[in-house]
Write a structure and sequence with these properties.
With 259 residues, this protein is α/β, with parallel strands linked by helices. The protein has a single domain, classed as NAD(P)-binding Rossmann-like Domain (Rossmann fold), CATH 3.40.50.720. It is 43% helix and 14% strand. The protein contains eight helices and seven strands, in the order βαβαβαβααβαβααβ. It has a seven-stranded parallel sheet with strand order 3-2-1-4-5-6-7, sandwiched between helices. Helix 1 links the parallel strand 1 and strand 2. Helix 1 crosses helix 8 and helix 4 packs parallel to helix 6. The longest helix is centred in the middle third of the chain and has 21 residues. It starts with 13 loop residues before the first strand and ends in a 6-residue tail after the last strand. The structure holds nicotinamide-adenine-dinucleotide. Belongs to the short-chain dehydrogenases/reductases (SDR) family. This is Dihydroxycyclohexadiene carboxylate dehydrogenase. Pfam families: adh_short (PF00106).
Length: 259
């Protein structure tokens, strides 16, 4: 998706979108650019440059699981566009689906590095830039998997993202900075150019994944997955000035799935 649903909604705003090479982040970044934002597409994958070029926007390649990557990305955006107004922390995603008893310690660490640290580091790294601007917004992409099976370390990481959202909102409200999150449920995606698990999924992991899909579809009141567009829309609403009285909130976007 790249069309402007609300043309001009982000006119004059500098927006950093992380994980913008594919999936939800790509859709968010393309639409933010179509709606007038000056967008920096940040990703670890080199092909993020091709995606940004579709929108006539700029890209930056960084590993956001490191402090240096997060700090460099924010510095680059501020230098390129003269400041930052909005940060959308979208990097994350469960690497492996398996019962908790099947997780090896290093696999637990990898989930926390992927789905907690990029948001924690990027939130910290953007602060001087938002302070310099006198305000702004941070939208974190969490997950409804904080109530779901077979990905407990990922769920724990996203529980951490929720805690960052609520606690940082309290600290920053007096500085004219909103901190909000969406918690997406299961979302249909085209085949991923970058797989979540570079090693590929084993037969057992595919079976556990199928159990996750069944659980999510059963417990969602709407009994279906979301589209990527259905995830991008509330992220962009929360990022926009239309949401000016919303902070500290975590919006479930999960078809009524309460686990
Ligand atoms: N797709 C779903 O069903 C779903 C459900 C709930 C929540 N979410 C959340 O939505 C967000 C996006 O999900 P998606 O399915 O579109 O993701 P995806 O796996 O399709 O894409 C993630 C992007 O982030 C990039 N990335 C990964 N690690 C990175 C790093 N260390 N540094 C920089 N870039 C990195 C990847 O290269 C990729 O472009 C994630 O936070 C995920 O947890 C997704």
């Amino acid at each position: 998706m790249s069309g402007a649903v609300f043309p001009g909604r982000f006119a004059g705003k500098v927006i950093v979108v992380t994980g913008a090479a594919q999936g939800i982040g790509r859709a968010v970044a393309l639409r933010a650019a179509a709606e007038g934002g000056k967008v920096l597409f940040v990703d670890r994958a080199d092909f993020v440059a091709e995606v940004a070029a579709e929108a006539g926007a700029e890209a930056f390649t960084a590993d956001l699981e490191t402090w240096d990557g997060a700090e460099a990305a924010m510095r680059h955006a501020a230098r390129l566009y003269g400041g930052i107004d909005i940060l959308i922390n979208n990097v994350g995603g469960a690497i492996r689906m398996r019962p908790f008893a099947e997780f090896e310690p290093e696999q637990i660490d990898a989930e926390i590095r992927r789905s907690l640290m990029p948001t924690l580091y990027s939130c910290r790294a953007v602060l001087p830039h938002l302070f310099a601007r006198g305000g702004g917004a941070i939208v974190n992409v969490s997950s409804n998997a904080t109530r779901g099976i077979h990905r407990v370390p990922y769920s724990a990481a996203k529980g951490g993202v929720n805690a960052i959202t609520q606690s940082l909102a309290m600290e920053l409200a007096g500085r004219n900075i909103r901190v909000v999150a969406t918690a997406p449920g299961g979302t249909e995606a085209p085949p991923r150019r970058i797989p979540r698990n570079a090693e590929g999924d084993s037969a057992a992991e595919k079976a556990w994944m199928a159990e996750v899909v069944d659980q999510v579809k059963q417990s969602a009141l709407m009994h279906r997955y979301a589209t990527i567009e259905e995830q991008a829309a509330p992220i962009l609403f929360l990022a926009s000035d239309e949401a000016s009285y919303i902070t500290g909130s975590i919006l479930p976007v999960a078809g009524g799935d309460t686990g």
